[in-house]
Every structure is written in structure tokens, then in C-alpha cells.
Design a protein that fits this description.
The protein is mainly β. The protein folds into two domains: 252 residues, no CATH class; 103 residues, Sandwich (Immunoglobulin-like), CATH 2.60.40. It has six helices and 22 strands. The strands form five sheets. Strands 2, 5, 6, 7, 8, 10 and 11 form a seven-stranded antiparallel sheet that branches. A hairpin with a 3-residue loop joins strand 15 and strand 16. It is globular and about 55 Å long.
Length: 370
Amino acid sequence: MKTTWDELMRYAPEQEIPLPPMQDSEGARILSKTMGKIKETKRKPARPVRTVLIAAAIAALLCGSAFAAHSFGWFDRLFGEKAALVKDHVTSYDETTDTDITQPAYTEEEQAMIAEGTMQVPDIAALSDTGVSATTENFVFTLQSMLVSKDSVLAVMRVDARTDKAAATLAALPEASDNEKEMARMLQVHVRNNIDFRGDHSLEWKLGGMGMHIIQVEGRTAYMVLTNNGGEIEPGDRLLFQAWYQDKTVDLFELPVPDQLEQELVIELDDPYWKTATITPISFRLDGTSSPQSSDSVTITLKDGTSFDLASKENGYAYSDYGTYGSMSSSGIGMPEEDRTKKTWLFSQLIDLDELASITVCGVTYPILQ
């Protein structure tokens, strides 16, 4: 990584959307029996790529009986029956499928600068022997599942506290305000495209906005959705997972981009600023020029008459809970030197593109003809 956490956070204001804890004791029993104990290690991680065993066994975890027919973990819990729209594109991680897990590497010149103290880099977590999991002094981070499109990421992460102080931090996260989190230097976990800038800041276009949404906290364990929206993600890219706690940034691990959700609908817009709208089952993106815009309001209407607005300055950036129509987060970036800008929203409920009736952008309605 060649960019500091503070620089990255300029593009990623956090918006948490807590959900009530699972009440089904059967789900807790399944979780307890299936997850087992995560092995912790204190050895230094190897820099080269190592092959780890990963699994699709998570498909049975943490699911209520209502979705047993096609259950695949937290995506069922978050999106209900709509989760079936992306079932074939969710990658599950455990201990039976191979993937390459690495940690950021540095050139010989950079390593010399690090040794001299003239280049600062994040700490490195210790990788576990199995699964996509990493251990720091205070936490164990375990990736459970991930959905990736061309411009967005939804990743479910399990975090286990190793100390009482860390457990107290997890317990406080759902109710803490942004200011309280900052003042107490609480845990933040993020995922982004691992870009090697090498002085080319035009590549910031690929970063996207990062977010962490707490799903559930039980005892010393928390489950969270890590989001990235508005980046550019291509086959061959690697996704970097990082944690920040008590003023320390740690590189957890990086993974190759899995098979991506490619379904999308592109609509040409009649607007002096916004030129196209791109819709996927998980996101909505506006692309346009860098001239000053007057509005970024978007309304989506489905064939059954359902209509909802995405968060914008017109509605006070009103975000929605998982499973309800709206948006859970948004990000925007402009590049004046190339006369382009974009804004991307992550849906809080998955959208069936075949059910779209129309979109309204900046007051102009565009029927969806399919």
C-alpha cells in the first residue's frame, strides 16, 4: 500500500446501519457447531503467495429456516428472498476451496526506505493456516463471503475479540456515533482495490468509497458487512482488507477478485451534466462531466408500483436499512483534468432488473424498455 489511511478516508465517510440481533437459537447452535475454533498463530506471515483452503460450507451458516431452500449465509439474512438474484455470484470462504491469499509486497527500494524509517507502512497481520483469516494483537478477522461487481463490493466479515478491551469495543460499535468512534479510536475495517499509485493519482478513480456496517454483535464476536462502491474492479485486480484500531493501521490480507456479477443495464440520459446511468442488482451509478451539477436526485420505480429515492442532498442523504428499498451508502469522485465524474449508490435491497419500470434522474423520467 502506498497511501495512508487518512488519505483514503477522504473518499469514504462511514455510514453504519445496525440490524437487530438474530433471535433464532437454532441459528446460534448451527454457528457454534460449524465455525469451530479459529486457530491463532503468532508467527510472522510469509510474503509470497500461499494457497489456503477455503470453503463454500458457509452456505449453511447463520440462516433461518425460512430460506433453507437456497440459503447462503448472511446474504439471506440481509436481503431475504431477493438474495436469490445474486446467489450464483456470492463467493463463500471457509476451508475447502483454493484461493491465493497474499499481503502487500514492496520493492527492494521501498524495503530499504522502510528500514531507514523514511517510508511508513501499515503493520502486517499474522495469516492463519486455514481459511481467509488474520490475527492481530486484539482481534481475529475472518472473511466469510463476498459479492463483487464492476464497481461495488459486499463482503461479510467475522471479527473475534482477543482481549476484554477489544470485546468492549465491538459491543459499543452499533450504538456509537461517528464522533464517539473517532474520539475512542474504535475499530474500523475496510476493503478496496489494492492500487499501486506510484505517483499516478488518476488511479484514485479505482478506489471507491469504503464503509463498515455492523450486522450483529454477540459476546466477543461481531459480524459486519464491508462495502466498497464507486470503484473500478477488473479481473486480475486484488482486493485489500485493512483494519484501523487505536491509531494503528494493519494490512490483513489481499485476495484476487472472484467471479464478478456482470449483469447491468446502461441508460443514456438527456442531461447537461449526467450522461449515463448504470444499474446492477446491487448498485446504481451516474457518470457525467465535471461541470457543476445542480442535482443528483434519483428515483427508481418498479413494475409493481414500488417507488423509492436514493440518498441525495435533496432528501438530506436519507439512507435505508438492509432489506428495505433505498440505498445503504453512496460515494462520488470527480476528475476535472479528464472532465469526468461519477456517483455510485449501493442498494439496501437487491433489485431485479427485469422488474424495473423507470428511473427518474434530476426530475426527468426514463422508461425502461426491455
